[in-house]
Write a structure and sequence with these properties.
By secondary structure, the protein is mainly alpha-helical. Helices cover 68% and strands 4% of the residues.
C-alpha cells in the first residue's frame, strides 16, 4: 500500500499545519495572480484537516504573500504574488539584524546595474525605446530643488528608471536584486545635514542618467555599461560621504 503524504510528513516530524501549509503553498504557486483556490470548506476537505489547522497554515502562507482570504459573498482563498517591495522589506529586516550599512549595500549595486544596462540595450522594442528617450528628456529639463523634498523626488525617479530597466532586461533575478538595492538606497536618512550638502550632485547624476538612457535606446551595450558604472560610482560616493558606518 502506497505511503500517504500525511504518513510521509509524520515520518519527517511535520505537523498537520506544516503539511497543510506546504500543500497550500504549492497550489498557490501553480495558480495565476487572483485565481480562486477554493472556499474554506473546499480546502478543509482537500487537505483533510480541521478549520483551525487550515487557518494556521493560511496565516503562514499569507505572510509569504502567496495567498489572500476574502470574507463574505464571493469570498474564499485566492492566489497572490509577492512584489519586489515585499521581498526588499524582509531583506531589510534581515540585514538590520546583522548591522549592515548603507555603504555596504550600495557597493553591491554596480555589478547588477552594469549587467542590467547591457541586457536592456539588447531589447529593441520600439515602445520601450521611446520610454527611455522620454526619461532622458525629462532628466535634461528637470531642475532639482535643493532641499530634502527635491532629493526625495530625485530618488523616486531613480527607482522608476531602474525598475523600468529591470523589466526591459527581462531577467527576474536581476530585477529582484536591483529592486532591493535601489529601495534600500532610496530609504537612506533624508533629514541629515550631510544629505543636504550632496544635493548639488543630483544635476550631475541626471546628466549621466540621460546619457545612459540614450545609450540603451541606441542599443550601444558597451557605452551603456560604462555609463551605468559611472552612475553607481557617484551613488556610492554619496553614501560614503555621510553614511560610512551607518546601519539602516
Amino acid at each position: 500500500m502506497a505511503t500517504s503524504r500525511k504518513q510521509m510528513g509524520a515520518s519527517r516530524g511535520e505537523s498537520a499545519v506544516d503539511l497543510a501549509a506546504r500543500e497550500l503553498r504549492e497550489i498557490a504557486l501553480a495558480s495565476e495572480e487572483g485565481e480562486f483556490l477554493g472556499s474554506e470548506d473546499d480546502l478543509v476537505i482537500r487537505f483533510g484537516v480541521s478549520k483551525p489547522t487550515l487557518r494556521q497554515a493560511t496565516a503562514r502562507i499569507a505572510q509569504e504573500h502567496l495567498v489572500t482570504v476574502r470574507r463574505g459573498v464571493g469570498g474564499g482563498y485566492f492566489a497572490r504574488r509577492p512584489s519586489s517591495l515585499t521581498v526588499s522589506r524582509m531583506a531589510a529586516v534581515y540585514l538590520r539584524t546583522r548591522n549592515a550599512t548603507y555603504v555596504e549595500l550600495t557597493e553591491t549595486t554596480p555589478m547588477f546595474y552594469a549587467e542590467l544596462a547591457r541586457l536592456a540595450a539588447r531589447n529593441r522594442d520600439p515602445q520601450a525605446i521611446a520610454t527611455l528617450r522620454e526619461f532622458a528628456e525629462r532628466d535634461d529639463t528637470t531642475v532639482d530643488e535643493k532641499n530634502i523634498q527635491g532629493y526625495a523626488a530625485f530618488m523616486r525617479s531613480e527607482r522608476e528608471f531602474v525598475n523600468f530597466l529591470a523589466k526591459m532586461a527581462g531577467n527576474s533575478v536581476l530585477e529582484l536584486m536591483v529592486a532591493i538595492t535601489s529601495d534600500f538606497s532610496a530609504n537612506a536618512p533624508r533629514n541629515d545635514e550631510r544629505m543636504v550638502l550632496r544635493l548639488g550632485n543630483m544635476a550631475t547624476y541626471r546628466a549621466l542618467r540621460a546619457r545612459l538612457a540614450r545609450a540603451i535606446a541606441n542599443g550601444d551595450g558597451d557605452i551603456a555599461e560604462l555609463l551605468s558604472r559611472r552612475c553607481t560610482d557617484l551613488m556610492c560616493e554619496w553614501m560614503r560621504e555621510g553614511f560610512e558606518d551607518r546601519a539602516f
